[in-house]
């Protein structure tokens, strides 16, 4: 262990998000091994996940027109280069693509490590002219400058090699870790009487994640409406985001009775779908659910899925790139063609993706039938829930950070 080494961690912002949570966890844990400083582009989104480590803002705005963005990009590079020199940084680890570019282009004598949180090939937000530039120019030309690239999922690796020309010897996978004990403890917190009444009224399906394109929750509403034709149930959404109004509107178009926590309505069992927003302790809402449903179009190594499994809730998830198959079916390979039927895996149920227009109606029917079957089989739910909880012991803090420290020490020694 190279305890005296200076480690700089870089991320665009410290707002709400899975990458930001991972960044915080890395910062806290790595401070036990190195001198850690955090850096962000700006503080516009606050600091949702604060640590006790030193935090420096480069104080460069985002947004604006094309010229503004170019100028801000250059300012970030210059200010990060100066910060690295000032801190005498030994290694800079960046999280998220925008930070990766700034980290690489400001590189001096320090080592550079990139942490890749998700699929680049399947990311629906990488589109248009800027997306083309990112995929065809920036990633292929810059990523090989890194001393090491850490991916959070094994299935990201072939994307980087085959689509972006990254040298395979630079790439290593280290999965995200989970605070298993803390999550288990928080999951035992009791619901309020009104909340418990909802859970007592009918089996509850719960999903957790930002209300955003990536999480692809809209088809889940159609599936749930179909499920209600077969049996009573409730659907609980944990999280908030830019698609909040679109999703609540779509739910009402489907004839679903919608509860919205932000309207300060009284929570009763009279609703079908419950939008609870961002919760300080989401786990107490997940633990008593019958199933955890996860309809994402793409992922990295999904934190919400793993957290639900720690809570002992059987997971039903799209077999999307990347992460769900690695967690639920670790001994299998990613199929060449998307699955079209439910696949009961070792630690949960993998399902068809819900973003293919040609097959979407049939895929939604597969989902509805599978959810109906599972809700009617308490023994199978109990079996899958126990297996899911057991699986997550593989991603404890101790096991994962032994790998991170080994990688950083190796990079620093060269």
UniProtKB/TrEMBL annotation:
<dbReference type="InterPro" id="IPR028098">
    <property type="entry name" value="Glyco_trans_4-like_N"/>
</dbReference>
<dbReference type="GO" id="GO:0016757">
    <property type="term" value="F:glycosyltransferase activity"/>
</dbReference>
<protein>
    <submittedName>
        <fullName>Glycosyltransferase involved in cell wall bisynthesis</fullName>
    </submittedName>
</protein>
<feature type="domain" description="Glycosyltransferase subfamily 4-like N-terminal">
    <location>
        <begin position="17"/>
        <end position="178"/>
    </location>
</feature>
<dbReference type="Pfam" id="PF13439">
    <property type="entry name" value="Glyco_transf_4"/>
</dbReference>
<dbReference type="Pfam" id="PF13692">
    <property type="entry name" value="Glyco_trans_1_4"/>
</dbReference>
<keyword id="KW-0808">Transferase</keyword>
